[in-house]
Specification:
There is one protein chain. By secondary structure, the chain is α+β, with helices and mostly antiparallel strands. The chain is 24% helix and 25% strand. It is built from eight helices and 17 strands. The strands form four sheets. Strands 1-9-6-11-5-4-2-3 form an eight-stranded antiparallel beta sheet, covered by helices on one side. It has a three-stranded antiparallel beta sheet with strand order 8-7-10, with no helix packed on it. Strands 16-12-17 form a three-stranded antiparallel beta sheet. The longest helix is centred in the middle third of the chain and has 15 residues. The protein starts with 10 loop residues before the first helix and ends in a 6-residue tail after the last strand.
Length: 339
């Protein structure tokens, strides 16, 4: 990875000095960055029902938002923005851009959102609960962050940690690429974990009170019912291994609108589909919400870390690779990526 992307800092230095601590502005992080798609291609994505998109228009001090898919993704000539999420799931060049930030664990990488704004366009001052890199494409945008103003041109990069209010306004027709990182909240994880426990089967028991006496205080919850509930809940158990299995499945699960298509191409290399998330912890692997243990885990770790590998190297896992290819989780190619 080029140190220019982080303003001359190594990934280790950046993480130590800036990550989740303070913003960083990097002029010419990617000199001459022309983006990965034009307005027409962005509009085409916004018309698809397997893509999240929205249009935000500023009217005075109010911002109006409409969500896609759109029959026509046209926006006003001023004070308007078209935003499309998950562009990396559909364009290899956007996927390659996301992977430039692989010094952060893949479990934290979320997606590349691309916005096209007309002069005056933006989404208003706001705070994100996650880390984000804002890479400027063609056109200029003015950002206000912590009382400071930054004017970004093509190739400039702005990193913002969670909780920092920012406001970006297009000075001319412009594109901005947001590289976002997922950060599940405690309540979100807790709810998902309870769902996972429920799928595994919670203790079955039915409350009974054969010796029930006439109620002297009908609105009072019976002490026996409280005791029964305490006993049932105390029987719910989970281990560290359960937590790993849940977390791996949760972090690798694709978003609801993601669709996989059978793998295509021929070649001597295996490349994960851009929609595929392959993670591991110890000897357990997680792919798109599924959990498995394999022989030769070191070879599958290489595929997970690099997102591609020589087919010959994965020969001991041929049956699994073939299964994943049919599911659309990976593809064969002769070209080695830059990933």
């Amino acid at each position: 990875m080029s140190h220019r992307l982080l303003g001359g800092l190594s990934p280790r230095e950046f993480l130590r000095r800036y990550w989740q601590k303070r913003p960083l502005f990097v002029p010419r992080a990617l000199p001459g960055f022309a983006g990965v798609l034009d307005r027409r291609a962005l509009g085409a994505l916004a018309r698809r029902d397997d893509v999240e998109s929205r249009i935000v228009e500023r009217r005075g001090t109010r911002w109006d938002t409409r969500h896609g898919p759109f029959s026509e993704a046209k926006i006003r000539s001023r004070n308007a923005t078209l935003l499309v999420n998950g562009v990396n799931l559909h364009l290899p060049a956007a996927e390659a851009l996301l992977r430039r930030f692989h010094f952060v664990p893949q479990a934290r990488l979320d997606d590349v959102m691309v916005s096209y704004a007309t002069p005056g366009g933006g989404v208003g001052p706001h705070v994100d609960s996650y880390d984000v890199f804002l890479l400027q494409g063609p056109g200029r945008r003015r950002w206000r962050v912590l009382g400071k103003n930054y004017t970004t041109s093509a190739g400039d990069l702005l990193y913002l940690p969670p909780g920092v209010e920012h406001d970006g306004v297009a000075l001319e027709p412009c594109y901005t690429y947001s590289i976002g990182f997922r950060a599940p909240r405690g309540a979100e994880l807790g709810a998902a974990f309870l769902d996972w426990l429920h799928e595994r089967g919670l203790p079955e028991a039915r409350y009974r009170d054969p010796g029930l006496a006439p109620a002297r205080r009908p609105a009072r919850i019976p002490a026996g019912m409280v005791q029964f509930t305490a006993q049932v809940l105390s029987r719910i158990r989970w281990s560290r291994s359960d937590v790993v299995d849940f977390l791996g499945r949760y972090l690798s699960a694709p978003k609801p609108h993601v669709v996989f298509r059978p793998g295509a191409g021929r070649g001597r290399r295996v490349r994960l589909d851009s929609k595929t998330q392959l993670l591991y912890f110890g000897g357990r692997f997680f792919i798109n919400g599924e959990s498995l243990v394999v022989r030769h885990p070191e070879r599958l770790r290489e595929l997970a870390d690099r997102r591609e590998a020589d087919l010959e190297r994965l020969a001991p896992l041929a049956a699994l690779i073939s299964q994943w290819r049919r599911a659309g989780y990976l593809h064969f190619t002769n070209k080695e990526g830059d990933g």
